[in-house]
Amino acid sequence: MKILLIKTQGAIPLQIRDRHLEKIKAVSKYIKLSAISSLDRQEIEKNLADADIIVSIPGVIPSIKGAKNLKWIHSFSAGVEKVLTNDVINSKAIVSNSSGIHAIPIAEHVIGFMLIFTRKFYETFEKQQSKTWEANQDLTELHGRTVLVVGLGHIGKEVARLASCFGANTIGIKHNLKNKPDFVSKVYSIKQLENVLPKADFVVMSLPLTPKTKHLFDMDKFKKMKKSGVVINIGRGSLIKEEDLILALKKKIIAGAGLDVTEVEPLPKASPLWNIANVVITPHHSGWSEKYMDRAVDLFCINLKAYLAKKPLPNLVDKKRGY
């Protein structure tokens, strides 16, 4: 069985090390592993022809038209919208993702966003630059606030757990209402979103991007929120209709936004978001840590063992649903 692993360049948390390759090889003596740089397109095309499995981050996975033996594509990312091309959807190849590995760093990132808004760290840091000793009179607490988590997957559940540790009341939007996760006081369906938004001080978006979730958050949703409400998006940029968010912030329909993702990435320098007060932007790195690829490879190996044993993959993606 041949595995084509495409190695990314640049970002340190996403780099494949020798220890990662050895861990994959150790799963079975029947594995032939070809690890090729994403920059070497000619070598990738050459190895694609007889690859049974392709493994990489979504942005560098090539067209599968020449992959005659392809049976499985595994993404080192949770989101697979860039993987699910028409060729992939219409092929017999199964798709899996790395859902679950990002929960810890992203949930901590979300808490960081919340604390920036409650403890006013951003304003205090600005004063520090001018050596101004001036107490902020507008400090508040996360304790007692209501946090609405839209999407209670691995990440959403970890956000709920950490928020509850601060004494926040956590509620959630969930596809299946039968099983209420720990640390969530109440769950609602996506159809109830507009009714729930007025309850929330923070709205955390941790949904996958699908045709149904694109621009889920538009002006109608922002108008349902508290004027003191803050949106936090660590899912995908297109969950929000960005022009509506900009208008809602400028008109003070909502109080602020913490954005790790934007509709266009990198965020264009001309975007008004850069200069709007109470907007905190991070460059789509909330899931990164030095443990990223260790966790990603461990999870791939779990799925690989299941695949070789002809068992269901723990991280199998429904190609029609998009996650």
Q: Calculate the terminal CA-CA distance, rounded to whole Å.
A: 26 Å
Strand-residue fraction?
Answer: 15-25%
- Unreliable spans are none
Quantity of strands, as a count:
12
Categorize the overall geometry.
elongated
Q: Please count the helical segments.
A: 10
Average pLDDT, to the nearest integer? 97
Largest sheet: 7 strands, parallel
Helix fraction? 25-40%
Task: Write down the Rg.
Answer: 21 Å
Q: How does the helix and strand content classify structurally?
A: alpha/beta
H/E order of the elements? EHEHEEHEHHEHEEHEHEHEEH
With strands numbered from the N-terminus, the spatial order across the biggest sheet is 8-7-6-9-10-11-12
